[in-house]
Amino acid sequence: MESLVVDKATLLERIRTKEAVVGVVGLGYVGLPFAVEKAKVGYRVIGIEQNPRRAEKINRGENYIRDVRDEELRHLVAEGRIVAETDFNRVPEMDVVVICVPTPLTKNLTPDLQYVERVTHEIGRRLRPGQLISLESTTYPGTTEEVMLPILEGESGLKVERDFFLAHSPERVDPGNQRYTTKNTSKVVGGVGPESLEVAVAFYSQTIEHVVPVSSAKAAELVKVFENTFRAVNIALVNELALLCDRMGLNVWEVLEAAFTKPFGIMPFWPGPGVGGHCIPVDPHYLEWKAKELNFNTHFIALAGEINRKMPEFVREKAYRVLNRLGVAPSRARVLLLGVAYKRDLEDWRESPALEVLRLLEADGVAVRYHDPYVPEVQVAGRTYRSVPLTQEAVAGADLVIITTDHSTIDYRWVVEQARAVLDTRYATRGIESEKIVLL
C-alpha cells in the first residue's frame, strides 16, 4: 500500500502529478469509460465491480461496453493501469473514490438508493484522512449531504471538509454517442463545502475538457435530474402530438419535420413507443418524489410521465387496428417486433418500451417473436425471449411487423417488401412508399 494522504495539499499534488490512485465503484456504462479515461492520462485505477464475471473480463482485458475501445482497455490492463476487484478491501489505497452505481425506482416509482447506501457503508468503514469521495449516480437533490455524508462520518469517525472531501458530479453519458464522450462532455461538480469543491474540480479537470463548478452538491444533483426531466417533458409533448395526429388523420412525422425547419425557438424531439434507458424513465420521478417531500407538486413532470408510460398501450391499440383491417384476431395473431433495445444501434434494453409492448401483446394472446441484432435475449415478466434471425420466413410469416427500435443495420425496404403489414413507431421507413406501412 502506498503512503497515506493526510491533507488537502498533498492530495491536490498527487492529483496534479497523476500519482493519485483512483477507485471507480461500478464498472458499467458510466464507470468503465470513466476508468479508461483516467487510466489513459496516467492514473492507476482500481475498479470495484461486484459482478464477478465482469471483473474477470476486465482483468483479462475483455471489453463489454460499446463506448470503450477494445484495444485501449487491453493495453491499459496489460500495463497494470486498470485492475478490477469484487470487494472493497483496497479502498484505503485509493486517493479518490468515484461511485457509479445504479439508482433505480421501486415498484411505486420512489427512489431506490440501496446500492448507493450499501457502497457508502462499505467505503465509510475503510475511509481514511485525505480521500475524495464523489457520487456520479443520478439521484434526487440532497442525497450526497443527507444520505451519504452521515454514513461516511458515522462509519469512519472522520469529519468532512477537515479529514475527507465529498462531492457530487453527475454522469452525462449518452451510450453510443460518437461525438460527445466522457472527455469532451462538460462536467458539473458540486461539493458539500468549498474544500471539497476545490479538490473535486482539480480532479475532474485532469481529464474533462470543461468543468462547471456549482455552489453545492445539491445544486449539482438538481442539474442532472432537470436535464433528463427536460427531455422527458419534451418527448411527452411530441408523443401527445402523435396521439392527436392519429385522431386527426395527420402524419405526425411530416408535421414535426416541417416544424423543425424553423431555425430558432424550437428543438427537435421525436415520438416513439415510449421512453427507455437508465435516465429518462427514472430521473424525473426522483425530482417528483423530492418535491412532494417539500409539499410541492410537480404537475408538468407527473403529466409527462403519464403520457410517456401510455405510449406502449397506444402501440398495442394501433397494432390491433391493423390486424383488424387484415381480418386477424389478436388471439390468433403472429407479431414480429424489430428491436427491443431502448435506443438505436445499442445493446442496452433497460426500461425499453419495446418490452412493455411485448408484454401487453402476449397478455392478450398474441404470439410475439422479436429480432434484435444487438440483444440476443431478454427477460419479460419472468419469461426469456430470444432473438430470431431476420429471415424471409420470419418476416413473411408474421401477420404484423412492428418496428420498435430503428437499428440502422436492418434493411427496412426489404422488410416492407416481405411483410404483410408494418407498424412503424420510429419512422424507420422514411422515404419508402408502400400501402403496407402504418406510421405511429
TrEMBL record:
Domain of life: Bacteria
InterPro entries: 6-PGluconate_DH-like_C_sf (IPR008927), NAD(P)-bd_dom_sf (IPR036291), UDP-Glc/GDP-Man (IPR017476), UDP-Glc/GDP-Man_DH_C (IPR014027), UDP-Glc/GDP-Man_DH_C_sf (IPR036220), UDP-Glc/GDP-Man_DH_dimer (IPR014026), UDP-Glc/GDP-Man_DH_N (IPR001732), UDP_ManNAc/GlcNAc_DH (IPR028359)
Keywords: NAD, Oxidoreductase
Domain UDP-glucose/GDP-mannose dehydrogenase C-terminal, first and last residues per copy: 336-431
SMART domains referenced in this protein's UniProt entry, alphabetically: UDPG_MGDP_dh_C
A Pfam cross-reference name: UDPG_MGDP_dh_N
GO terms of molecular function: NAD binding; oxidoreductase activity, acting on the CH-CH group of donors, NAD or NADP as acceptor; oxidoreductase activity, acting on the CH-OH group of donors, NAD or NADP as acceptor
GO BP annotation list: polysaccharide biosynthetic process
NCBIfam families noted in UniProt: NDP-sugDHase (TIGR03026)
Similarity-based family: Belongs to the UDP-glucose/GDP-mannose dehydrogenase family.
Protein name (database record): Nucleotide sugar dehydrogenase
Originating species: Rhodothermus marinus (strain ATCC 43812 / DSM 4252 / R-10)
